[in-house]
Specification:
Length: about 350
Amino acid sequence: MRNIYNLILLFFITVVIFTETLRTRKTRIPRINVRRYTRKRVTRATKPVIKREKERPLSFSGISYEYDKKKLTKQIDEWVNSKPIVYSPARAIIVPHADLRLCGNITGNAFRQIDKTIIKRVFLIGPSHYFQFQEGRLTPSLYYQTPFNSIEIDTEVYSKLIKTGHFMYMDEAQDELEHSLENVLPFLGRVMGRRHFKLVPIIFGDLDELQMKDISKFFLEYLNYEENLFIISSDFCHWGKIYNFTIISKVFNTVNGTIYKLDEYAMKTISTLDPNKFQQYLNRFKNNICGQVPISLFLHTVKYALDKYFVVSFKFLDYTVCNTTNTSFVGCAAAALVVF
């Protein structure tokens, strides 16, 4: 009986010591492994207090692209330099943001069309994947880290965006969890090299008609000058159960054929540079293009440019279907816009 009592006492002492150890222990856990990847509604009523951090770190190095700098350099140089210059100097490009090891060859085609010697400002625009909101969100950081350098955020343009009433700063968690911008940074950092330019990164949620109109007119002021480059980050059709999209065309009866046909029609529609036709396409075919809001903004901006007698030329340069897993696929495309 005495032995049982001693065992019970020893057990409770062990539990107390273990609990106290956990409470006082200060172990640094990488944020990327512990944050919840849930689609969370964030409203203006719950607007966070933003502390401007110095630099946004890389969250997807070694996950979405090569961690080793030498290997990454070799990959990007091959992807870019192997492509012909056919639409240059591009004032705007559309690039994918899937795993670079799958779509880097496509992204390289778009970056081949830019002239880095004239670029002083880059608008990097992508969709929000994990948070739902109805405006544009700006980074709280003052610099964006790339695998090759750090790029200064254009705080002057940020101040102008805030004054429109259609933008607010996101918190650190939103910024570091979003991959639609970071997966473009290896190309931007490598291609631009040591040349000084400023970055305007923006993540978009849903936008209403007024927001779309006002923001497009704001972008038009910068599209007019060759020193500005617009990068629209978007993948095309996402197929698979994880995307809740498993339609297979009766005509093609294959996954790849279905994705290709949906995206082919999307690219033809976008190439008309008519935002209304693109919206009609989305309403009809329900293609889950993740960057449909940034693409729509781009089309509205170009429409206003054409109304002001701008002369432009736009073309899709490359396309492929990436097999992200055994049961999921993503369409990836590259395009370029030239303003004369």
